[in-house]
Amino acid sequence: MAPIVAQVGPFTLYTHDLFTVAGILAGLALYYRALRRDRVLDGRIVVISLAAILGGALGARLITSWEVIDEVSAAELPLTYVITHGPRSIIGGLAGGYLAIVLTKRALGYTLSTGDYYAAALPLALAIGRIGCFLAELPLGTPTDLPWGMTVAPEAAAGFPRCPGCDGPMHPSMLYEIGFHVAAFGLIFTRGPLLPIRGDTLKAYLLAYGIFRFGVEFVRGNEVQAWGLTGPQIVLIPLVGLLVIHFVRRLRSGAYRLPIPEPATARGG
After folding, report:
1. Which of 87, 235, 236, 263 could form a Cys-Cys staple with 64, CB 3.0–4.6 A?
2. Treating both helix axes as pointing N-terminal to C-terminal, what angle do 231-253 and 90-108 enclose, rounded to 10 degrees?
3. φ, ψ (nearest 5 deg) of residue 222
4. For residue 182, is pLDDT > 50?
């Protein structure tokens, strides 16, 4: 485990933060490249992007704040403590960023759907960011007897207040997610939009990731919160549900149905 990249005097460069920033920058670079290629890049996009980053950062913190609400209340800590020190969630970041984009677009009167431009950039950013999680976070996952189970040194496990399963092989759950995001990025980047309606390729990716992440949570090592489910699983249920409803409506309306080609006319007389 390598939670710290470098430390110079009072300055500490954390592995998780380094890869998170690298992922955001790589995703934005790909996003702007696609917008510039299609000649739809303007100043409002910059404002929308900044709002997405801010919304994602807030969402990543606030959506899991209920997990530490007892600690915060007992110590009479302000909301700013939760934002700066609370647990972070990729799921909350995605939800917060998406909501920020929608609200900012409405405020600016921006009507062009840009979801498909995020569709490849997002899995690229998440794959890079998850490398930081793999290098800096414990536990890696739940205990496993599978041949690819990974172990960590006792010294590394001792640095975490909670590290169940760290005394033996664990599922490398972060690597599972990295593999999913790399595969999604490769598919979308090489094939382009996968659905005919603008913005639905991004929604399809988010739906696939939501379902995948719900399953990975069973070997992720997060604490069970209620009904035998972890916090991320509980949050995912309504989010995935909304996406399922969206695609059911699309299918029922025939939105993805291709027009039937007209029969070729006979030649000759």
Report:
1. 87
2. 50
3. -75, 155
4. yes
